[in-house]
TrEMBL record:
<keyword id="KW-0511">Multifunctional enzyme</keyword>
<comment type="function">
    <text>Bifunctional enzyme that catalyzes the GTP-dependent successive addition of two or more gamma-linked L-glutamates to the L-lactyl phosphodiester of 7,8-didemethyl-8-hydroxy-5-deazariboflavin (F420-0) to form polyglutamated F420 derivatives, and the FMNH2-dependent reduction of dehydro-F420-0 to form F420-0.</text>
</comment>
<keyword id="KW-0560">Oxidoreductase</keyword>
<keyword id="KW-0436">Ligase</keyword>
<dbReference type="InterPro" id="IPR000415">
    <property type="entry name" value="Nitroreductase-like"/>
</dbReference>
<keyword id="KW-0342">GTP-binding</keyword>
<dbReference type="InterPro" id="IPR019943">
    <property type="entry name" value="F420_FbiB_C"/>
</dbReference>
<feature type="compositionally biased region" description="Basic and acidic residues">
    <location>
        <begin position="418"/>
        <end position="430"/>
    </location>
</feature>
<feature type="binding site">
    <location>
        <position position="137"/>
    </location>
    <ligand>
        <name>a divalent metal cation 2</name>
    </ligand>
</feature>
<feature type="region of interest" description="Coenzyme F420:L-glutamate ligase">
    <location>
        <begin position="1"/>
        <end position="230"/>
    </location>
</feature>
<dbReference type="InterPro" id="IPR002847">
    <property type="entry name" value="F420-0_gamma-glut_ligase-dom"/>
</dbReference>
<comment type="similarity">
    <text>In the N-terminal section; belongs to the CofE family.</text>
</comment>
<dbReference type="InterPro" id="IPR008225">
    <property type="entry name" value="F420-0_g-glutamyl_ligase"/>
</dbReference>
<feature type="binding site">
    <location>
        <position position="381"/>
    </location>
    <ligand>
        <name>FMN</name>
    </ligand>
</feature>
<feature type="binding site">
    <location>
        <position position="418"/>
    </location>
    <ligand>
        <name>FMN</name>
    </ligand>
</feature>
<keyword id="KW-0464">Manganese</keyword>
<dbReference type="InterPro" id="IPR029479">
    <property type="entry name" value="Nitroreductase"/>
</dbReference>
Length: 430
């Protein structure tokens, strides 16, 4: 049995690259011995130079702004962003090193297209069929240090999907997808170095990595990205993207997700070191129907007492459909145990208001945490208008005050974009 082995070597002799240079011609002159099946690893910096991606920039930060699609995380001056190529990296890939003062290098506009063009041109110049990977240097979440990864590819299988196979012990491989192009890029970086002036490397002896692929396959889709934002950014995103959802799918709600949201809710501030929050979770359809039917009857009685017509009553009752159609309901309740009693109207009113504010903070925590669990929600005030009915149906203690109902479920449609609000109209300076 032949022991697996491969060779990776740097290519010396690549001159300083300038805009308009035929990069493939420069590489062919430095590596005339390229063979069919080789994989060429090309640092993106020289690709950018050849493609004229050198731009004047009075401020590198302004160049980063121009290349940024969204900010993923910010710590001081450091920004991790998604750039126009869909890559999540520091500073959008804008590079101010190894370029003239007052200029910066941008990444290739389409790194896959750059790799395809290099491959085709090398085939023309040397009559060889090689794979090409355009590489760039990345930091990685949860890992210290930098490594090269593939940002463009041609003639290479960028992913090796082993799912459905078995390991050496016969165990099924259910999640194993190997980032082959990134492994090759990192291997090339070992011989290219960061400051050795060796921007190109060749890997030989790995015929199984050849194939067709795009480096975009390495970019995790947003829907599958569990860590799409940094911590502070994720908190702000959850707060601002918390939306009232009024239409849900029939998919069941994970009770564990709701309990995690309750755990977040009860971290809200509260007066006198109390814990004024209680959450009644209606997980069974029977419990939900029993409560909503009783609330509907109480509401109809109130509306008739107000002199509303039957047509008007029917229209108003339909507003409760958001609760009736939700697959899960939670009733937050306020408990004022521990509140001070002053025997003075103004102070007693203020005391209760403290607890109500704490309840509101807990409900907001709850709704934001549900959004973090990718669940939609709608806070509806209805239980506050028939507390005695709710206490009776749910068999609650007399000192539990229902403070609305939260409908919970998977959104039937994505919520529309929220218009951005500036803080100034809500601020008074003194």
């Amino acid at each position: 049995m032949t022991t697996p082995a491969y060779e990776v070597r740097a290519v010396p002799g690549i001159p300083e690259v300038a805009p308009g240079d035929d990069l493939a011609e420069l590489i062919a002159a430095a590596a005339p011995d390229l063979q069919d099946g080789d994989v060429l690893l090309v640092t993106s910096k020289i690709v950018s130079k050849a493609e004229g991606r050198i731009v004047a920039a009075d401020s590198r930060e302004a160049a980063i702004d121009a290349e940024t699609v969204r900010v993923v995380a910010r710590r001081g001056a450091l920004r991790i962003v998604e750039n126009r190529q869909g890559l999540v990296m520091a500073a959008a890939g804008v590079d101010a090193s190894n370029t003239a003062a007052g200029t910066v290098l941008l990444l290739p506009r389409d790194p896959d297209a750059s790799a395809r063009a290099l491959r085709a041109r090398l085939a023309e110049l040397l009559s060889v069929d090689v794979g090409v990977i355009v590489t760039d240097t990345f930091g990685r979440p949860w890992r210290t240090g930098l490594t090269d990864v593939a940002i463009g590819a041609a003639g290479v299988r960028v992913l090796d999907d082993l799912r459905g196979g078995t390991d050496s012990h016969g165990n099924p491989l259910n999640v194993t997808v190997v980032a082959t192009a990134d492994e090759l890029a990192a291997a090339g970086d070992l011989v290219k170095g960061k400051a050795a002036g060796l921007p190109v490397a060749v890997v030989r002896g790995l015929p199984h990595v050849r194939g067709e692929g795009s480096a975009r396959e390495l970019v995790r889709p947003a829907a599958d990205d569990m860590f799409r934002l940094g911590t502070s950014e994720a908190v702000r995103e959850a707060v601002t993207q918390r939306r009232t959802v009024r239409a849900f799918t029939a998919d069941p709600v994970d009770p564990g997700a709701v309990r995690r949201a309750v755990a977040a809710a009860v971290t809200a501030p509260a007066p006198h070191h109390t814990t004024p929050w209680r959450f009644v979770l209606l997980e069974s359809a029977q419990a939900r129907v029993r409560l909503l039917d009783a609330m509907r009857d109480a509401w109809i009685a109130d509306l008739r007492r107000d002199g509303k017509s039957e047509e008007s009553i029917a229209k108003r009752i339909r507003r409760g459909d958001v609760l009736r159609n939700a697959p899960y309901l939670a009733v937050p309740c306020l408990v004022t145990e521990g509140a001070h009693r002053y025997g003075h109207e103004r102070r007693d009113v203020a005391e209760r208001e403290m607890f109500v504010v704490a309840m509101g903070a807990g409900v907001q925590n709850f709704l934001v945490a549900l959004a973090g669990e990718r669940l939609g929600s709608a806070w509806v005030s209805s239980t506050m208008f028939c507390r005695e009915v709710v206490r009776k149906v749910l068999d609650l203690p007399q000192d539990w005050d229902p403070m609305g109902t939260v409908a919970i479920g998977h959104p039937a449609t994505p919520p529309p974009p929220r218009p951005e609000r500036t803080p100034e109209p809500f601020i008074e300076l003194r």
